[in-house]
């Protein structure tokens, strides 16, 4: 049976989904459990079994969370929801990116002859998202009238343990792997899902342009972008 793990790095990225959760038939309340300092909430959204967690920021926190969802909760699918910095041409704040694939922009073993982003001695460095889940996200987007006027693009997402707020750094990431957006968790969740054969997708709403103007732009859009991403996730879980 389908059981979806939904991961956001920060509370604002998952609060809407937590509020929508209802207990399953047997439990009188939403089941909560803690592993490695992270709380996991298990229940239903629109009758679909869901586990929601705030992973904390960064690749290791996110990978631990994804692995716990797989090992301790037996999730069959993983969705990473949240905000990101826009990199792709034509993307603006409050537009959406759905991952077709995810890479680490900060993986650098070029000194040993590897390409930028290439993970030494691994069969892949580019983790491919599930096509059915991608389609579900696109369909959900098309079905939300409030999102008319915003764009949804699907393509590569790049993750690293770095908040990108400098034009030169942004351009360097463009040269290295040309992603649509940058964030700090998606690829490590994708990596964890890949090695466990679990289908995944990353949904991100743009909070900033990942450049020098970041501070005020980010603060202004953080909550809206996080909630818009969660709203899209709520709609898409019924569609795959
Ligand atoms: N999440 C939201 N905006 C980001 C940025 N500019 N860099 C990394 N992660 C982000």
Structural notes for this entry:
- The structure is a single chain.
- The protein has a five-stranded mixed beta barrel with strand order 5-9-8-6-10, surrounded by four helices.
- Helix 2 packs parallel to helix 5 and helix 3 crosses helix 6.
- 44% of the residues are buried.
- The protein is of the alpha/beta class and 240 residues long.
- Helix 4 links the parallel strand 8 and strand 9.
- The radius of gyration is 17 Å and the shape is globular.
- The structure holds adenine.
Summarize the SSE layout with pairings.
Elements: E1 4-8, H1 11-20, E2 31-35, E3 38-45, E4 48-54, H2 59-73, E5 77-86, E6 96-104, E7 127-128, H3 131-142, E8 152-159, H4 167-177, E9 181-183, H5 186-195, E10 200-208, H6 214-236
Parallel strand pairs: 1-4, 1-5, 5-10, 6-8, 8-9
Antiparallel strand pairs: 2-3, 3-4, 5-9, 6-7, 6-10
Helix pairs in contact: 1-6, 2-5, 3-6
Bound molecules: adenine.
Adenine is lined by residues 83-85, 163-165, 182-184, 207-208, 210, 214.
Order of helices and strands: EHEEEHEEEHEHEHEH
Largest sheet: 5 strands, mixed, barrel
Instruction: Provide the residue-averaged pLDDT.
Output: 96
Give Rg in angstroms: 17 Å
Morphology: globular
Instruction: List the ions, cofactors and other small molecules found in this model.
Output: adenine
Quaternary: single chain
The class by helix and strand makeup works out as: alpha/beta
Query: Strand order of the main beta sheet, please?
Result: 5-9-8-6-10
Strand content: 25-35%
Q: Got a strand count?
A: 10
Between the first and last Cα atoms, what is the distance in angstroms?
Answer: 12 Å
Which residues sit in consecutive blocks of at least 5 with pLDDT less than 50? none
How much helix, percentage-wise, in residues?
A: 25-40%
Number of helices: 6
InterPro entries: MTA_SAH_Nsdase, Nucleoside_phosphorylase_d, Nucleoside_phosphorylase_sf
GO molecular function: adenosylhomocysteine nucleosidase activity; methylthioadenosine nucleosidase activity
Pathway: Amino-acid biosynthesis; L-methionine biosynthesis via salvage pathway; S-methyl-5-thio-alpha-D-ribose 1-phosphate from S-methyl-5'-thioadenosine (hydrolase route): step 1/2
Keywords: Amino-acid biosynthesis, Glycosidase, Hydrolase, Methionine biosynthesis
């Amino acid at each position: 049976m389908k059981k979806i793990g939904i991961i956001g790095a920060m509370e604002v990225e998952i609060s809407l989904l937590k509020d929508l959760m209802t207990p399953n038939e047997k439990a009188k309340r939403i089941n909560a459990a803690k592993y490695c300092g992270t709380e996991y909430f298990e229940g239903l959204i629109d009758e679909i079994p869901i586990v929601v967690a705030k992973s904390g920021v960064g690749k290791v926190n996110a990978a631990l969370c994804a692995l716990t969802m797989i090992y301790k909760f037996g999730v069959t699918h993983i969705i990473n929801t949240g905000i990101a910095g826009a990199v792709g041409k034509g993307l603006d704040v409050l537009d959406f990116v759905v991952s077709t694939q995810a890479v680490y922009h900060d993986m650098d073993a070029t000194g040993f002859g590897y390409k930028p982003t290439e993970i030494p001695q691994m069969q892949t460095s580019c983790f491919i998202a599930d096509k059915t889940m991608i389609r579900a996200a696109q369909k959900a987007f098309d079905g939300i009238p409030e999102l008319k006027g915003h764009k949804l693009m699907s393509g590569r997402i790049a993750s690293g343990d770095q908040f990108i707020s400098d034009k030169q750094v942004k351009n360097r990431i463009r040269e290295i792997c040309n992603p649509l957006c940058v964030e700090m968790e998606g690829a490590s969740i994708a990596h964890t899902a890949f090695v466990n054969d679990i289908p995944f997708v990353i949904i991100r709403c743009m909070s900033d342009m990942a450049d020098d103007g970041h501070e005020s732009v980010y603060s202004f859009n953080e909550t809206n972008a996080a909630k818009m991403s969660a709203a899209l996730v709520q709609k898409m879980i019924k569609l795959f």
